[in-house]
Design brief:
binds protoporphyrin IX containing FE; Cytochrome p450; 7-stranded mixed sheet; 18 helices; alpha+beta; about 55% helix
């Protein structure tokens, strides 16, 4: 991170180890002006109390025409077209739209509804582990396990054909990270087309899965427009896997670098649910871009923020705030960390939190059980992180299974 008088710039070294920069920011500039890799200035919030407060601050909004125009000015109408096509979802909506959209699918994500998925999640994990057991000793754990597990779960839940997984996995990867703008826009457009076709094809035979229910609701446009149905499918598909992949991937990486923590989990698997919370706190999948917009003058952490500004709440920085968590940089699977902000807070608190927790619990329990000698197959500093301000995740995770 480089600093000028007023701004900080998030560069490539930031992705490799954001926690060092976060520590500095929390201490020196808890409400900082930062230039993102997109080139736009934003306010970055890094302390736990400020972050939690900002996430429930009614003067901070999700829906902003100003921001859409800014993106269009910078990237041209192509990007605007695809983003508009898939952006009418709850995560970029304010009440009352947010309330209506969330309610439509909320029932499917309650603790009880999700608990009923446990046998199927166990089965998917077991099938992946069987395949790993029958295959080579050295694998990329992301490819073999951390990616296919949540993707299969969310595809089945929504009713999205499994054969299309590779396509939307690659589009969604491209959309969520910074790279060549043309590739980015093309991936977005392909994803928007795919989802539009998927939703439209369901108009004939809705089916009894979640996508069917969404399409049926969109038959009654008072409930949901076609545009909102497509956006809902986009959000659930992308939020439903990009994050959980990294809970499993980064969590496993953390364990393999902390043998005493790994030994504690192996000795007492009942610690796994608590360990999942600690992985989320210590290096969670959504690190920076929990975005909000000011529509009126606002004060955060004693700093005046004018209207029409972008505010990013760094959940990862907040989760390592030493004022909230003693020894915050230490990974401790016995820590009671459930008050972390890795799933956000307030009305946009992650709808899929119960599902992600269950997938994490099953994934870690069964992986450790099946491969007692699991080990990292690279030097930790050889591994690279995805160049994204939204998702924190490894590019690959080479392991030896036996
Ligand atoms: C919202 C994190 C898994 C669906 C959020 C937010 C965070 C988050 C931080 C709030 C963002 C904000 O306030 O700006 C995570 C993490 C996950 C995970 C860390 C895995 C470990 C899932 C899964 C689904 C899901 C499996 C399933 C479909 C959603 C949805 C929202 C959301 C629909 C929007 C909620 C709203 O706007 O009311 N998630 N998520 N997430 N998440 Fe997750």
């Amino acid at each position: 991170m480089t600093s000028s008088d007023q701004y900080l710039r998030l560069g490539p070294e930031f992705y490799a180890d954001p926690h060092a920069d976060y520590a500095w920011l929390r201490e020196e500039r808890p409400v900082a002006r930062v230039i993102t890799p997109l080139g736009n200035p934003v306010w970055l919030i890094t302390r736990y109390d400020d972050a939690r407060g900002a996430l429930t601050d009614p003067t901070l909004h999700k829906d902003s025409e100003e921001f859409r125009q800014l993106m269009e000015a910078r990237y041209g109408p192509g990007r605007r077209t695809f983003e508009d096509a898939i952006n009418a979802h709850m995560l970029s909506a304010d009440p009352p739209s947010h309330t209506r959209l969330r309610k439509l699918v909320g029932k499917a994500f309650t603790g009880r509804a999700i608990a009923a998925l446990r046998p199927r999640i166990e089965q998917i994990a077991a099938e992946l582990l069987d395949a790993m057991e029958a295959g080579p000793d050295r694998v990329d754990l992301l490819d073999a396990y951390a990616v296919p597990l949540p993707i299969t779960v969310i595809c089945e839940l929504l009713g999205v054909p499994k054969d299309d997984r590779d396509d939307f996995r690659s589009w969604s990867n491209t959309i969520l990270q910074f790279g060549d703008e043309e590739t980015h826009t093309a991936a977005g457009a392909a994803m928007a087309r795919y989802l539009t076709d998927l939703v439209d094809a369901r108009r004939e035979h809705a089916g009894d899965d979640m996508l069917g229910a969404i399409v049926q609701a969109s038959e009654d446009t008072d409930q949901l427009s076609r545009h909102e149905a497509i956006s809902m499918a986009f959000l659930l598909l992308v939020a439903g896997h990009e994050t959980t992949v990294n809970l499993i991937g980064t969590g496993t990486f953390a364990l393999l670098r902390h043998p005493e923590q790994l030994a504690a989990l192996r000795a007492d698997p009942a610690l796994v649910p608590g360990a999942v919370e600690e992985f989320l706190r210590w290096d969670g999948p959504v690190h920076l871009a929990t975005v909000r917009f000011t529509t009126e003058p606002t004060v955060i952490g004693g700093v005046d923020i004018p209207p029409d500004e972008v505010v990013l709440v760094s959940l990862s920085a907040a989760n390592r705030d030493p004022h909230r968590y003693p020894d915050a940089d230490t990974l401790d699977v016995r820590r009671q960390a459930s008050s972390h902000l890795a799933f956000g807070h307030g009305i946009h608190h992650c709808l899929g939190a119960a599902l992600a927790r269950l997938e994490g619990e099953v994934a870690f329990t069964r992986l450790l059980e099946r491969f007692p000698a699991l080990a990292l197959d690279a030097e930790p500093d050889e591994l690279t992180w995805r160049p994204s301000t939204l998702i924190r995740g490894l590019d690959r995770l080479p392991v030896r299974l036996r």
